[in-house]
Amino acid sequence: SKLGVTNTYAAQLLLGQAKLTPGTASKHKEALPELPSDDLQAMQDDFPMRSFDDDILKEPHVYRTYEAITHYGKAIKSIINEQCGDGIMSAIDFYLDVGTTTGKQGEKRVVITFNGKFLPFIEQKAEDNG
Questions:
Q1: Active site residues
Q2: Same domain assignment for residues 95 and 73
Q3: H or E element that contains 93
Q4: Assigned domain for 109 exists
Q5: Separation of alpha carbons 114 and 93, rounded Å
Q6: Number of Cα atoms under 13 Å in the Cβ half of residue 27
Q7: Could you list the residue range(s) of the whole structural domain that residue 78 is in?
Q8: In a domain, 57, yes or no
Q9: How many domains are contained in the chain?
Q10: What is the distance of C-alpha 84 from the center of its chain?
Q11: What is the pTM of this model?
Q12: Is the domain of 80 the same as that of 60?
């Protein structure tokens, strides 16, 4: 929270999957004073690698998350279409937050929130294809 970004975005910064902006860099240095200045500068200068290694799906937690999305994917798509129309959720204009809550029996539960801009599909009219 010291950075002013979501917890998953902060993790992406440290994993080289997001670009550090100058405005957030000073907050980052305060939150992690042991981070070398060269690394902090590289996080601002380098373009992030936003792909993933296929081996990541072998990691149990990542695979269970993938499994949940594939299991509920059709229902998620149907609800998005019903509530928003024909289109998709952006992964560019997108926020992701991971947190926890307590269940009815006192157990720790994981909460993952996807918050993406809805992008409607367009009718591809020849006259608009300039």
A1: 64, 67, 90
A2: no
A3: strand 87-102
A4: yes
A5: 11
A6: 12
A7: 52-86
A8: yes
A9: 3
A10: 21
A11: 0.79
A12: yes
Residue 29's contacts (CB-CB under 8 Å, 6 or more residues apart) are 35, 37, 40
In a domain, 130, yes or no: no
Beta strands in 1-130, from DSSP E residues, in sequence order = 87-102, 108-120
82 and 108 both lie in a single domain:
no
The two three-digit tokens of residue 13, written as one number: 């910064």
Nearest to 32, CA basis, from 23, 40, 43, 42: 40
- Cβ proximity of 19 and 47 under 8 Å: yes
> Which residue's entry shows tokens 């560019």?
92
The residues that bridge with 48 in the sheet, in sequence order, are none
Structure tokens at 20: 């550090």
Mean pLDDT of the chain: 93
pLDDT per residue as tens digits for the range 99-127: 999 999 999 999 999 999 999 999 999 99
Q: Are residues 30 and 60 in the same domain?
A: no
Distance CA 5, CA 58 (A): 28
